[in-house]
Amino acid sequence: MQKNIKIYTLKNFHNIPQVQSAISETEQKAIQIVGNVLPFKVNNYVTDELIDWNNIPEDPIFQLTFPQREMLSETHFADMERALCEDFDKKEIRIITNNIRYELNPNTAGQHKNVPSIDGMKLTGVQHKYRETVLFFPSSSQTCHAYCTFCFRWPQFVGIDELKYAMKESELLAEYMRRHPEATDVLFTGGDPMVMSANKFEKYIDPLINNKVPNLRTIRIGSKSLAYWPYRFLTDKDSDDLLRMFEKIVNQGYHLAFMAHFNHPREMETNAVKNAISRILSTGAKIRTQSPIMNHINKGVDIWSDMWQKQVNLGMIPYYMFVARDTGAQKYFAVSLDEAWRIYQKAYQQVSGIARTVKGPSMSADPGKVQVLGVSEVAGKKVFVLRFIQGRNSDWTCRPFFAEHDTEAVWLDDLKPAFGEKDFFYEKEMQQAN
Ligand SMILES: *Cc1c(COP(=O)(O)O)cnc(C)c1O
Ligand code: SF4
Description:
This protein is an alpha/beta fold. It contains 16 helices and 15 strands. Helix 5 runs antiparallel to helix 6 and helix 13 (301-313) crosses helix 15. The model is unreliable at 160-166 (pLDDT under 50). Iron/sulfur cluster (SF4) binds at residues 144, 147-148, 151, 153, 190-192, 224, 261.
């Protein structure tokens, strides 16, 4: 069945039929206020097929897409409320909004670092942090079919221009790859690269394939489109063309890895998503899945085991469980490292080895992706055992290290080295690199 996308933002979300009956006027005002700071956008698939409107505000998909009052601190909320109520002029409102956004510390984890250059020209749409994989932010995918309230990429959507990663020239990407024979993977990211037309996507892909970059093995696409708009692969007018592009990539011998963002088992239950998954798999692409663990959305053992099991049943491969980044509404979503690991461990025990391809809980921090292997006791001391899944220096990868156990810690910065050590083993090298 054909479905046309209807987009709702702050301007028109009052028109969503379910909003009028399920959300009080006060709550709608709170959405307006918080939505001025955090990105807000939903569509008719999310509102008609995913959100359970009988369970507002607790519904996890509602929490995932609709701004909630508690996502801002009391002070920020009050500042924003005053600005909007007292009819400040547009410019003043903008200044207040941007101040709050900066205080929420949007550009974390050294995301603005690792910007490479060719012959002195900065490639602002390229990020090369780990040897094998080059991240590419196509300028035409700086948006998504809907926005997640936890999104750490929001500076890109809200127009703080100097924070945008964007690059027009995919030829430059291909040239960069050729000059870095150690890189085997290109990861298309955004926003969501699947908001692009098939035609645009082809323009980005063509300079890379046909053996134009001999070291290229894998093309990855990081996308939330299966969860937010599965009709992208079913009935959009260029759906078939897009799938033909996937086939073309696979037929030329590349591994096409669709990195699907799913945050809750509900997102895997509609007919639309099931059909979309099977159409993507029929091109020869593989689908791997990833999600952060977040309070109010998916903090629960059964939610995770159910999610992994459903993914396996639909032919997908569970890949990463992340810890929510220290940005935006992190306090609202934060799950301590201790609890994240306990949930991971219990959920992992509930699924068979087939679903144990998932790695986590993992923090994408400045020095690398750090996995919490667990809580253990060494010589009478309770410690976190950690390791790099990916290290800034690839030699750090896979080396276990220890931190003092701390039930409050939510991020790498909160941890102290165990056994009275002054620094973690990688810190000296990090400081020299910066
Ligand atoms: C996660 C990530 C990658 C890919 O890492 P894999 O472990 O190979 O999936 C590449 N670059 C950055 C910056 C990342 O955060
Ligand atoms: S899909 Fe990804 S990039 Fe888009 S809003 Fe959600 S977290 Fe952000």
